[in-house]
Amino acid sequence: MSEETRDEDAAWERLLTALREDVPGPAPAWLEGSVMSAVRESAARRPSALRRAGAWLLRPSLSLSPLTAGLAAAALAALLLVPWRDEPAEAPAAVVAARPAGAAEPVVYVQFVLEAPAARSVAVAGDFNEWDARHVLEDPDADGVWTGRVPLRPGVHQYMFVVDGTEWITDPGAERWTDDGFGNRNAVLAVAPPAA
Amino acid sequence: MEPLTDAQAVRAVLAGQHELYALLVRRYQDVLFAHAFRMVGARDEAADVVQRAFVRGFDRLASCREPERVGGWLFRILANECRDRLRARKAELSLETLPPLRDRAAGDPDEDAHVGELRARLDAALGQLDPEQREAFVMKHLEGRSYEEMASLLGATVGALKMRVHRAREGLQHLLEVYR
Fold first, then answer.
1. What is the pLDDT of residues A65-74, one digit of tens each?
2. What's the rounded Cα separation, in Å, for the pair A168 and A126?
3. pTM of the full structure
4. Cβ contact A105:A129 at 8 Å
5. Which of B55, B67, B141 comes nearest A35 by C-beta?
6. What gap in Å lies between CA A93 and CA B110, rounded to an integer?
7. Which DSSP string corresponds to A154-188?
8. Distances (CA, A) of B75 to A95, A97, A106, A128, A149
9. Do B25 and A31 touch (CB under 8 A)?
């Protein structure tokens, strides 16, 4: 090893030592309380099961807010049909939990995609889950594209996306819609049986 | 009574016992805060980023596929938040805005001032790195993590991470002169 290389290595060590000495210490004492306060607020915004049922029955009261309109305008959505005979190895927990008990029943895993860069959460609600937004989409690389697979029985289904737990939006990438009779549109999805 | 495991806490929170989320906050806030501090460079901003990550984690907890590894999952959310924060802000510090570094003579009586100047230079130099390079450098050299652990946490390949660290070191090369 040359003298120059040794000098450089030693300089690196001194530089790294200086950086490591700038220790942040523990998190501020107020952080936990602040987080939990925000968590309680977030939990309070989630509709209860009763209110969710009411939201479905009283869908005419739902309307698109400016936020929703902005999201919809920015949205680039695609719906892919991805049939599997069996559950995929990387299935999200929500999919596992929602899988029908009857193993013999054919199930098709449908991948839902919504681009919503400003969203903090995205879920899909439809007639397949009693319009309960329990199927949560994920955005693990935080690029604003939320995806999630949901097991559906073959047939025709209607659904909407639920952004941040409160904003119901129509999938802008759906190929078919149907008026729900109350001024909103549900996306319509036809799921073919898995190939034999 | 045995403390709840991470997986038990996650399931309890998802079942509606939201206050148990505080258990996860207490368990991981220090390590997340340390990472955020080294990424964004200021305690207040680091605390804000950590809070956002925890709340985002709570909102999306149902999508945590491996509740027994919720700590790594939260770290990944935090890492995303840190990178977003760095991308969103313009570099407030740049090397050009700093005064020239004085020569340090042996026995310099103004050692503290010299150390302060060095620190400002380090902060500025780190601020010039791409967020991904800074992240890899911080995790490898300041947090002492292995490449395998980094790959597992960040979902990147070991090769890509080694390249980021290499680029980061290149980006900091000009600092070496003052440490010779």
1. 334 333 433 3
2. 11
3. 0.56
4. no
5. B55
6. 59
7. SEEEEEEEEETTTEEE--TT-SEEEE-SSS-EEEE
8. 23, 25, 37, 33, 24
9. yes
